[in-house]
Design the sequence.
């Protein structure tokens, strides 16, 4: 599966926390706050940012289980969340029978952040089958929706955005990625499996105070879009203009949060 550096995850964490829908965050926490010794399983955990966002609302007595393929990120997640258990798993090998060896015993809630736009339709179906079999709720935050609005505008914004979204649909290690369709596909699969599903917008809104994140984001968008643009040099032209306007511009990146509970 595709990997992300600790530096990038740390850079985006404040924007992620500001973007998360507060209502769904609190509702997810309420599912475990009243339980004694509740266990939360976080998929694709990175450094444990979901635990840092959700944990303060859950009260004492919550045990986190972090699952990621990157042992360095898992060690960092464990260091930042004392008492958490870490599990090195290749989530790309997920199968309907639980073939990834997910540690589900005693779990009260499954969480994931910025994960589902990377995975395939088949992977979503496999995970939903596992969740439904164990009647587990899911809190999935910050799924990319394909929306990107930049101010001030540039003539190449639409072309670069379309090219970037095309790249988001390429295989990230889980099969053909859902990219911008992920939020809708996940919600439909859960509803078909008997879940009550709530969704809410959770966009990044980046301004002058987010210049380091904006710079990395713009470079990443241009790099991903480059091979999908017909005209050579368009990505570089767009990136140069965007970096110049970043200190006084704004960027809105669409995400969606979801909370699904078995009926």
Sequence:
């Amino acid at each position: 599966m595709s990997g992300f550096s600790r530096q990038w995850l740390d850079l985006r964490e404040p924007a992620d926390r500001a973007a998360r829908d507060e209502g769904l965050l609190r509702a997810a926490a309420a599912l475990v706050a009243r339980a004694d010794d509740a266990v939360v399983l976080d998929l694709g955990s990175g450094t444990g940012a979901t635990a840092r966002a959700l944990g303060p609302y859950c009260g004492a007595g919550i045990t986190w289980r972090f699952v990621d393929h990157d042992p360095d990120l898992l060690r960092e997640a464990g260091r930042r969340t004392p008492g958490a258990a870490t599990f090195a798993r290749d989530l790309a090998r997920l199968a309907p029978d639980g073939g990834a060896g997910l540690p589900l015993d005693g779990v009260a809630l499954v969480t994931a952040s910025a994960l589902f736009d990377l995975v395939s339709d088949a992977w979503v179906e496999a995970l939903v089958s596992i969740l439904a079999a164990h009647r587990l709720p899911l809190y999935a935050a910050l799924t990319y929706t394909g929306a990107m609005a930049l101010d001030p505008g540039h003539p190449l914004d639409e072309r670069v955005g379309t090219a970037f979204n095309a790249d988001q649909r390429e295989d990230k290690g889980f099969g053909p990625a859902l990219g911008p369709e992920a939020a809708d596909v996940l919600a439909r699969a859960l509803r078909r499996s008997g879940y009550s599903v709530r969704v809410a917008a959770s966009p990044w809104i980046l301004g002058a105070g987010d210049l380091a994140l904006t710079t990395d984001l713009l470079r990443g968008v241009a790099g991903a879009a480059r091979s999908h643009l017909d005209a050579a040099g368009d990505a570089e032209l767009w990136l140069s203009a965007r970096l110049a306007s970043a200190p006084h511009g704004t960027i809105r990146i669409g995400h969606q949060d979801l909370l699904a509970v078995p009926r």
The mean pLDDT is 93. The radius of gyration is 18 Å. The chain has nine helices and eight strands. The longest helix spans residues 211-225.
